[in-house]
Amino acid sequence: MIAENLFQQMPKIIGHRGACGHAPENTLASLRKAAELNTRFVEIDVTLTQDSVAVIQHDSDVRRCTNGRGPILLKSLEEVRTLDAGSWFGPEFGGERIPTLKEAIDVIGELGQGLNLEIKPTVGWQIPTAERVAEELLVHWPEEIPLLISSFAVECLIEVRRYLPDVPLGYLTSAIPPDWERRMAEYDCASLHCERHYVTKDHIKAIRDAGFRVLVYTVNDPEEAKKLLDWGADAVITDFPDRMFPLLEG
Ligand code: G3P
Ligand code: MG
């Protein structure tokens, strides 16, 4: 899908790691929770297992979000699938697994959501991660579903572009670098995704005036979301999509 079509379909509220304020991040339960809260677009993180399967996981170590420990890149899919990725969040989520990208795609399709897929490689594994993710997307991604790929790792953006010439790319950063415009052009990005503390009204205006979109993460205060959207941000990425809707609709 070309960038213009994607952004026409992208709502102002994007669920972070699904709806990770309400369900264990980056699980199928989190995607379903987001949908239940009427979130039409979600952000999730993708990384690789030892046997090069793309799975939905934020950290390079499984310790924080499962009952296991150790680097995910040193675990096979079979090992990863034995981990409980839900109980740490709440007993009612016991038995949630780290999903594969394929499983997440199937559920996103079923729920009718759009996706901001953040490629989160283990440091040093940027190229293999992007390559594998792109290969899986080529096989499994339904063309009609909106997809925006982002990464802090520019090697991933470059690599993905080689495989997927039309997919919109997001330049993901914390602070906005002074030479953002050159970087956006160099990595062929349509949007800039930045951390909420660093973004100003002037940034948003300049980036929008240059023809790019702006997404801000992680915004959990509805007043702040309203301010950012009033400044011209295209979307905010939030752990609590439900908190945002009343203010934005009012
Ligand atoms: O993609 C936006 C945001 O998710 C980036 O930071 O650490 O939450 O993946 P992080
Ligand atoms: Mg992320």
TrEMBL record:
Regions crossing the membrane: none
Signal peptide as annotated in the record: none
Gene3D superfamilies xrefs: Phosphatidylinositol (PI) phosphodiesterase
Domain GP-PDE, first and last residues per copy: 11-248
InterPro entries the UniProt entry points to: GP_PDE_dom, PLC-like_Pdiesterase_TIM-brl
Pfam families: GDPD
Domain of life: Bacteria
Alphabetical list of PANTHER family matching this protein: GLYCEROPHOSPHODIESTER PHOSPHODIESTERASE, CYTOPLASMIC (PTHR46211:SF1), GLYCEROPHOSPHORYL DIESTER PHOSPHODIESTERASE (PTHR46211)
Protein name per UniProt: Glycerophosphoryl diester phosphodiesterase
